[in-house]
Amino acid sequence: MCGIAGIIGAQACDKETLENMGKAIFHRGPDDFGTWIEERSDIGFVHQRLSILDLSPAGHQPMLSGSGRYSIAYNGEIYNHLELRKKLNIDSWRGHSDTETILAGFDHWGIKETIDQSIGMFAIAVWDLHEQELTLIRDRAGEKPLYYGWQGEGNRKAFIFGSELKVFKQHPSFQNNINRKSISLLLRHNCIPAPNSIFEDVFKLPSGCMLKVSHKNNTPEIKEYWSASEVANNGSANLINADSKDVIDELESLLSGVVKQQMISDVPLGAFLSGGLDSTTIVSLMQKQSEKPVKTFTIGFEEKIYNEAAHAKTIAEHLGTDHTELYVSPEQAMEVISRLPSIYDEPFSDSSQIPTILVAELARQKVTVSLSGDAGDELFCGYNRYLLTEGIWKRFSTLPIFLRKGLASLIKTASPQTLNTIFGALSPLLPKSFRQANYGDKLHKAAGVIGLKDTDELYLGLVSHWNNPEKVVLGDSSEPGTLITSNMPNLDNLDSVQRMMALDLMTYLPDDILVKVDRAAMSCSLESRVPFLDHRVIEYAWKLPQSFKLRDGQTKWILRQILYRHVPQELFDRPKVGFGIPLDSWLRGALKGWAEDLLAPDVLKSEGFFDTKAVRKKWDEHISGKYNWSYHLWDILMFQSWLRENR
Fold first, then answer.
1. CA angle, residues 369, 374, 375, in degrees to nearest 5
2. For the CA atoms of the chain, what is the radius of gyration?
3. For a designed S-S bond to 316, which of 77, 123, 283, 321 qualifies (C-beta 3.0 to 4.6 A apart)?
4. Which residue from 125, 135, 148 is spatially nearest to 211, judged by alpha carbons?
5. Minimal CA–CA distance to 13: which of 47, 36, 34, 32?
6. Helices within 481-629 (DSSP H only)
């Protein structure tokens, strides 16, 4: 895991600038540093290395291929690189790094064929000295980030790329113009979806894509080499037809092999353990294949409805892991909040970023690599919105729309706080599947969408914070099209729940979840690995009949069957909590002064990005306790906090 950056530009590429770009992302790779410049082509790379495999100088980057044709700066891990070495059948190697393997593949097979054969997570920059062409490549699922864009004018015009936006700020041609359209995206999604960024003319390379650019053709040409929508469509059209036990055995074998590959490391390795189904599955498979206790890490909260640490501890004791936990106070969270603008580089408002940073820092005290259970929800039907669609929506969507809107109005006659109190008192009497945290907030969310016309509108409503963000963001703030609005891929062969799962895989996962984990982990030089995102697992999951994922109102059915073999059912069969924080109460308490400072009317008016009246209305209603607008307010607060640091 590393940080990369580079420049193409006749008068814009020099060693000092490259070194400054590297220093800006030092945290991504503090173990080694290198630059490479080809002066005749005005191209340069910088690489910050976090040494995981082959700690010797033989793994130093940027690296030239054996033929001298290709130069690479690479971030990530190729888990099957030893198998690729066997295919290449080369007599001698300089070292045992996967970087050298990739370059040998480029020499032997070419760039695309090598990537097609590679299993892993990566962001790659490779310069072809023969063709005088730069290729940028991002892994299939989008685990590793890669930004790019042309900046400047005339002879100072430069094509800049890098792992984080920090590298752009080190280049004298960077224009630093805020994109108001991206602020609208932030308010809807609590992140800025690819290919957009917070800055004009700076973009994110979408997952599963290659970009080519050169002096002769300076318009970036982007092509997909792996398509999640094609995987979903092809999988659903070629479903596995086999006995349940055989399918469970096959998936467990596949996951075990993937976990074994991802446990290869020349440095200490561990895992995040939340106590939920996904992380428990990964840790169980790790411990089964480990000769010593796996190091596991958990964050907890004193507020019971957000706390899974006790469950994680019980599971760790059962599995025999070497477990470490940390209970988080509002004061600790406040310390993290002050660092969020720097860590996330652009406004990012998934509030679970806070515990993610804390658990990453906790893990980094003992390990350099940590596996996680992310993506289990997207692949095996784990989110509550899938249950809502399968259950409530399918029943209510047959009713006339005026009746649905009337029901929504009825629900909203009671405030979320009142409903939370009522259902909190009734919780012990309800079936397990109905015991949810913040039930009133969820009911109000449902009330906001049951009057919509179809499942595509339903999905957009469920994943939106502000429903009309362009009315809150001032200036030219119309939302750019995204994969869930005007640019939706063809998913016509999927049912409503499958469509949501596919869209989550293509949008919410890479734009939110993986951004959250990557920046949190790399801020403290920790490599995160996600076994569920091995593309073989993704492709297999989409070949499973839906009944293996959602059965009798139970999500992730097949993962539960695997986990029953390792952990007693009663230890993890409980309502989904999610990796959240008590943000609503913290904003009314420990964080109130900080938030009021950022949301002060004179501040909002002077900056000129938001409608002051709309924002203050949400803030006043939240403080009163009548409504929980914590997510909406966090979107604004994360922009305000970022703006204060970046102006």
1. 135
2. 24
3. 321
4. 135
5. 36
6. 496-503, 514-522, 535-541, 557-563, 583-588, 592-598, 601-607, 612-624
HSE at residue 280, side-chain half, CA atoms within 13 A, is: 31
Residues forming beta bridges with residue 327, ordered by sequence position: 300
| Residue where the block lists tokens 């492709």 | 539
Could you tell me the pLDDT band of residue 306, with boundaries at 50, 70 and 90? Answer: low
Which H or E run includes 273? Answer: none
Q: How far is CA 93 from CA 58, 86, 97, 120, in A?
A: 9, 12, 9, 21
CA distances for 551 relative to 382, 390, 545, angstroms: 11, 10, 11
Backbone torsions φ then ψ of 551, nearest 5 degrees: -140, 125
Q: How far apart are CA 581 and CA 144, in angstroms?
A: 25
Residue 364 host element (H or E): helix 353-364
In the annotation, is 209 catalytic? no
Whether 434 has a pLDDT exceeding 60, the answer reads no
> Which residue is catalytic, options 2, 13, 209, 381?
2
- Residue 169's SS3 state is helix
Instruction: Determine contact, residues 348/190, Cβ cutoff 8 Å.
Output: yes
pLDDT digits (tens, 9 = 90+) for 35-67: 999 978 899 999 999 888 767 788 899 999 999
CA 208 to chain centre: 14
Secondary structure letter of residue 263 according to DSSP: T
Per the listing, tokens 């295919």 go with 87
In angstroms, the CA 274 to CA 433 distance is 19
Q: What is the pLDDT of residues 584-601, one digit of tens each?
A: 988 999 899 999 999 999
Residues 144/123, Cβ–Cβ less than 8 Å: yes
* Distance separating alpha carbons of residues 508 and 510, to the nearest angstrom: 6
Q: HSE-up of 588 (CA within 13 Å, CB side)?
A: 15
Question: Using one digit for the tens of pLDDT, what is the confidence trace for 5-28?
Answer: 999 986 778 899 999 999 999 999
What secondary structure does DSSP assign to 454-498, as a single string? Answer: SHHHHHHHHT-SSSSGGGTB-SS-PPPP-TTTTT----TTS-HHH
- Cα separation, 28 vs 164, whole angstroms: 10
- Please answer whether residues 36 and 45 qualify as being in contact, where contact means their C-beta atoms are separated by less than 8 angstroms: yes
- Rounded to the nearest 10 degrees, the angle between the axes of helix 309-319 and helix 277-288 is 20
d(CA 380, CA 427): 27
Q: In the chain, what is the greatest distance between 2 CA atoms, to the nearest angstrom?
A: 75
Q: How far apart are CA 361 and CA 365, in angstroms?
A: 7
User: Which strands make up the sheet holding 209-214, listed edge to edge?
Assistant: 63-64, 70-78, 120-128, 133-138, 209-214, 221-224
Answer whether 372's CB lies under 8 Å from 355's CB.
no
User: Measuring CA to CA, which residue among 420, 548, 604, 533 is closest to residue 140?
Assistant: 533
| Pairing of the two strands 70-78 and 120-128 | antiparallel
Contact 554, 391 (CB under 8 A): no
Contact between 287 and 102 under an 8 Å Cβ cutoff? The reply is no
Residue with tokens 């290729």: 135
Q: Which two tokens stand for residue 67?
A: 């033929």
- Beta-bridge partners for 554: 551
Using one digit for the tens of pLDDT, what is the confidence trace for 453-487? Answer: 788 888 998 999 999 999 999 999 999 999 998 88
* Residue 209 and residue 148 in contact, taking contact as beta carbons nearer than 8 Å: no
Is residue 465 within 8 A of residue 189, CB to CB? The reply is yes
What's the average model confidence in pLDDT over 339-361?
Answer: 95
Strand partners, 326: 299
